[in-house]
Amino acid sequence: MAYVFRGRPAPAALLLAAALLAGCEPGAQGGYAKISYRGDPQVPSHAYPEPPTVVPGTSVGAAAAKVVLANPPAGVTQAMVDAGQASFGTVCSACHGQNGTGSPAGPALNDRAWLNISGQYPEIVTLINSGVPKPKQYPGMMPPKGGGAFDDAQVRSIAAYVYALSQQGGA
Fold it and tell me: N or C end: fewer C-beta atoms under 10 angstroms in the chain?
C-alpha cells in the first residue's frame, strides 16, 4: 500500500524508492559491484612463438637430411629422389616412419631388407601403385599409393626416394 500525500506519493516513499534504486545502480556505494565486460585478453606475441620449420620426410623441426642417389637405375635422377622425399613425408611416413625408419604399422625402408619384393626400382613403383593387400609381418594392408592421391610422376619420385633410401642402409 502506497502512501499518498495530496494526490502525490509521500516524500518518505520517494526517498525509500530513490535509496533502493541507488542501491541497484552498478558501482553505487552499497550496491552491486560493477560488472565489466571486455573482449579477448591481450596476449603478448612471445606467448605464441613461431613453430619450427617442418620439412616433409624428416623429423619435426629437423633439417632435411638429403638422400643422395649413388647408383641410379635407368631413368631415375637425383631431382626425382628430392621430389620423392618431399612427397614421402605427406602420407607414407605415417606408417613407414619419418625417413623410412619403420613403425609398428609398416616396415623400415632405410635398409636393404625387403619383405614382398627384391627391392628393384620397377618393383617399388609397382608395389606403391598396387599396394600390399596381405602384408607378411604387419597388421594392416597398404592401400594403393599408400592411400594418397599421387599421380604417376609422384609415384615414380617416391619410388626413387625409397630406392635411394634402401641403398643408404646396411644389409
Answer: N
Instruction: Report the C-alpha gap between 45 and 42 in whole angstroms.
Output: 9
Asked if 134 and 146 count as a contact pair (C-beta separation under 8 A), the reply is: no
Would you say 150 and 94 are in contact if contact means Cβ atoms under 8 Å apart?
no
Predicted structure pTM score: 0.62
Helices (H), the chain: 11-24, 78-88, 93-96, 121-130, 152-168
pLDDT in tens, 70-99: 788 888 999 999 999 999 988 898 888 888
Q: Within 13 Å of residue 56, how many CA atoms lie on the same side as its CB?
A: 15
